[in-house]
Design goal:
two-stranded antiparallel sheet; 308 residues; 12 strands; 11 helices; metal-binding; alpha/beta; 8-stranded parallel beta barrel; TIM Barrel; BKACE
Length: 308
């Protein structure tokens, strides 16, 4: 087994500012927490942007460019920009920032799916911003859209056009078969960075059987041509990524996926979650990959070949 890549997803587009005072919202907060996460051991930083006034997810490349150069200047970590964006964003909006930044790595959801965030409404009596409750409720009737045509376009414009590689986000085993379809068509090239995702409403449940099944199917479809990673939502985050690592996976943590660093205890930063998973991995004799090692493992184009 090669060294374990720790990815950190800093803010995402699921949690809202009311849910945690530690969720980074402004460009300053995102940059600072990204730098701290890299110092703690994260070699990949998965990034969304938010409106600095309201905390609402935004695809605006001008907001991304307020923190991307600062992160690059202060760390050697691999920057991974979302192409999933957030609820209500068009494909062109979702691609605006990565096309401008030409990053080494981007996330790529491998299919359309229901994506339910509305159960979180029950946990809060009121919200800081008017948009938050409406945003969560709207997910009851929302489908995240990534058709075959959408995926082809992203692979063409970012992959072929910019030399960007992808973190293929697979929310169920059907997404693994979709990825295999694109591999058969030679529209993606190994090594594939496959992120198996568990515990989100609309995707695969966080059950051990599903974790092992995802690994078996990926092995069957991709053999030695992929590098596996595991992430899980909410309370499942640390137990599930630990099980993944024991079974040969890389890991992803961060406040995008869970706001906690223990039962009932909000994580005070993304770096706290990185330190927590690192404190579990290293006693298990699992070495953490550096950014340079991560670039070699994933065959990335290098940090000198971005435009931020």
């Amino acid at each position: 087994m090669s060294k374990v890549i720790i990815s950190c997803a800093l803010t995402g587009a699921v949690h809202t500012p009311t849910m945690s005072p530690h969720l980074p919202v402004t460009p300053d907060e995102i940059a600072q927490q990204a730098i701290e996460a890299a110092e703690a051991g994260a070699s990949v930083l998965h990034l969304h942007a938010r409106d600095p006034e309201t905390g609402r997810p935004t695809p605006d490349p001008d907001v991304f460019m307020q923190f991307l150069p600062r992160i690059k200047q202060a760390t050697d970590a691999v920057v991974n920009i979302t192409t999933g964006g957030g609820q209500g964003m068009s494909l062109d909006e979702r691609l605006a920032a990565p096309l401008r930044a030409s990053p080494e790595l981007c996330s790529l959801n491998m299919g359309s799916m229901n994506f339910g965030m509305y159960p979180m409404l029950e946990r809060y009596k009121s919200f800081r911003h008017d948009w938050e409750a409406a945003h969560l409720e709207a997910s009851r009737d929302w489908i995240f859209k990534n058709t075959f045509k959408d995926i082809e376009l992203i692979l063409e414009r970012l992959g072929k056009g910019h030399g960007t590689k992808f973190e293929f986000e697979c929310y169920d085993t059907a997404h693994l078969y979709t990825l295999a379809h694109f591999l058969d068509r030679k529209l993606v090239t190994p090594p594939l960075f496959v992120q198996s995702i568990f515990g989100l409403l609309g995707g695969t449940g966080a059950d051990t059987e599903n974790l092992l099944h995802a690994r078996r199917i990926a092995d069957k479809l991709f053999g030695d041509d992929y590098r596996w990673s595991v992430m899980a939502a909410g309370k499942h985050q640390i137990p599930f990524v630990t099980m993944g690592a024991i079974n040969g996976a890389n890991v992803r943590v961060g406040l995008e996926d869970s706001l906690y660093a223990g039962k009932g205890r909000l994580a005070r930063s993304n770096a706290e979650q990185v330190r927590l998973i690192r404190s579990i991995l290293e006693p298990l004799s699992l070495e953490v990959a550096t950014p340079a090692e991560t670039r070699e493992i994933l065959a990335l184009k290098g940090g000198d070949n971005v435009t931020f």
